[in-house]
Specification:
It is built from 8 helices and 8 strands; from the N terminus they run H-E-E-E-E-E-E-E-E-H-H-H-H-H-H-H. It is of the alpha+beta class.
C-alpha cells in the first residue's frame, strides 16, 4: 500500500455566468444598465431641495398700476400669497404669512389694474400677469420673523425674489420718495397744470418714474426726480432733444450724473424745450401696455385713449 495518497486539486472556473448566446449577454447588459440608472436616480433624489417653512411674503410694487394680489407656486405645488391693493411704490412693511415653499423654481401670477381707468358705477378692469422666477438656495434664519420673502414687481413685468429679506429698507425703486418730494416742491405748479387729487397725482408721477426706468434703467432718487420734473413740468418729450439725449448717453448709468447734468443745460436748450421747437432724435421705445393710458392735463383723472 502506498505511503500516501495524493488527491488531485479541484479545478474551479472563474465565478462568472456562462451565456449560451448573444441574446443572453445582451439581456444581462441591459439589466446592469437599468440597475445603474436606478441607483443614479436614487442618488439624485437624495439631494434635498431647499425648503422654506413659516415664510412671510412682502410685495414691492414698482408697477405703474395697483397690485391687487399675487400667488407664488413652487415646482411641487406649494403656494404662497400676498398683496392687498398696493398702489405704485407701496408694499414695504406689509407682509402676509405663514407659508411653506420648496425648491428653486417658482411661478408668480398677479392681478393688477389701472385705478384711473375707472368711473363710479363701473367694474374695475382687472389685468393678469405671470412670470417664472429662480431663487438660489438660501439659508433659512432661525427667527421666524426674519423669514421674509421679498417679491419685487418691476415695470417691465419681470419679477425678482430675495430671501431672507427685510421688513423695511428693501425698496429698489424710490417711487414714493420721488412722488412726495415733487409734490412738496412743486405743488402749486402741478395742481395748476393737472388739477389732480393727491392719489391721481401720485399715480401720474409713478407712471413717469416707471417710464424713466423702462427707457434708461434709472434707479437713483435724484435722477428720477429730475426726469419726472422735466417730463411733467417742462416738456413730456424732453428726452428726445439731442442735447438731453447726449447727456443721458454720457452719464452711462452712473447714479446722480444725469440729474447734475440736466440742471446745467444751456439757456438756449431750456428755451427750445419750453417752446417745444427742436429736431427730435430717437429714444428707446416702451411696449404697449407697460404704462397706463395717458391722461389729459386738467382732465380730472379721466383716462383718454390716443384717439381722443
Amino acid at each position: 500500500m502506498p505511503d500516501s495518497i495524493q488527491l488531485a486539486a479541484p479545478t474551479c472556473g472563474p465565478a462568472v455566468p456562462r451565456y449560451r448566446n448573444t441574446a443572453e449577454r445582451l439581456s444581462a447588459a441591459l439589466r446592469v444598465a437599468a440597475a445603474s440608472m436606478m441607483f443614479a436616480s436614487m442618488a439624485a433624489c437624495s439631494k434635498s431641495e431647499p425648503t422654506y417653512t413659516s415664510v412671510s411674503t412682502e410685495a414691492l410694487n414698482y408697477l405703474p398700476y395697483n397690485l391687487i394680489r399675487f400667488t407664488i407656486t413652487d415646482q411641487f405645488g406649494n403656494k404662497a400669497r400676498g398683496g392687498g391693493d398696493l398702489e405704485p411704490g407701496a408694499g414695504e412693511g406689509s407682509i402676509a404669512c405663514c407659508y411653506l415653499l420648496k425648491g428653486t423654481e417658482f411661478k408668480i401670477q398677479w392681478t393688477y389694474y389701472d385705478a384711473d381707468d375707472w368711473l363710479p358705477g363701473e367694474q374695475v378692469k382687472k389685468l393678469q400677469g405671470e412670470a417664472s422666477v429662480s431663487l438660489p438656495p438660501a439659508t433659512v434664519p432661525d427667527s421666524v420673523g426674519s423669514r421674509i420673502l421679498e417679491v419685487h414687481f418691476y415695470p417691465d413685468r419681470h419679477v425678482e425674489l430675495s430671501f431672507p429679506g427685510q421688513i423695511l429698507g428693501s425698496t429698489r425703486l424710490p417711487i414714493v420718495d420721488v412722488s412726495r418730494d415733487l409734490t412738496k416742491r412743486y405743488a402749486s405748479r402741478l395742481e395748476k397744470r393737472y388739477e389732480d387729487n393727491d392719489a391721481q397725482l401720485h399715480r401720474r408721477i409713478s407712471s413717469v418714474v416707471a417710464q424713466a426706468w423702462l427707457k434708461y434703467r434709472f434707479t437713483n432718487r435724484s435722477d428720477l426726480e429730475q426726469y419726472a420734473y422735466c417730463a411733467l413740468l417742462v416738456n413730456p418729450r424732453f428726452d428726445t432733444h439731442p442735447a438731453v439725449q447726449k447727456l443721458i448717453q454720457s452719464s452711462k448709468g452712473t447714479p446722480g450724473v444725469f440729474a447734475q447734468a440736466v440742471a446745467t443745460l444751456p439757456p438756449a436748450v431750456t428755451k427750445e424745450l419750453g417752446n417745444d421747437r427742436f429736431q427730435a432724435v430717437s429714444v428707446p421705445s416702451i411696449s404697449t401696455g407697460l404704462l397706463p393710458s395717458p391722461r389729459k392735463e386738467n382732465g380730472r383723472g379721466r383716462t383718454v385713449s390716443a384717439t381722443d
